[in-house]
Amino acid sequence: MNKKFILPVAFAIVLGLALFVTANSQQGTQDQITFEVRLNEGWNLVASGAFASYPEQDSEIKSSDLGAIFYYSPLQKKYLQVYPAPTTQRERDAYSEVFDKEETLESNFQMESRAYWVYSNKAGVLKFMTDDVLPFNQRQLRSGWNFVSITSEMLDKNLGDFKGSCEIEKISYWDKDYKKWEVLSPEIMREKMPAEASLDWYELLLFEVYQLGEGVLFKVPSDCQLGTSGNSNINPPQIPQ
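The chain above was modelled as a monomer; its predicted structure follows.
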């Protein structure tokens, strides 16, 4: 059994693990999850943010408070705006073209299970319900950076517990208070950890309850799938080139 370690508090703050942001989520029925995410004014990484423009009635943040929502395509390597919706026929045609292309490359379930950029015009709690969010061990990562939703099943697990077939090279959090990225890699971890500390990259315990409903970025060198440590590491031989 792998040992689990929690990053020292000072180190966690440096890495953006102690943002002044809270979130709450719970598993719902029919593959639905209700998120309550505290947004800062400005840009926020929100789990399954495709649904964020449909807040619950008791949400502090209303759809009128949202300035924009963007999806990052890990295959097309570009941002796609999903909110506000296009207004002219020309814009609608262009919108349909890029999203039709994305849907041929990725399933809707994969797209809806990723984290999205959500711009809020004010601070407050956004409460919304998702639909058909995949368990983390069914989510695919693509070569490069991937926007990953943080859900309740990912708590109390270290990086190795859900790496699956992925070689995770870097992790990045968006610090909404300072509006900057905080990046962690094995090299950065070795530089910042005390000399006497003995901590393997995949022993990092990543997520705490206040991060539920937020997003994190994973960088991988090739396409892969997240999964638990119980998944088989036995793979069939590769097809010859």
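The longest strand covers residues 66-73.
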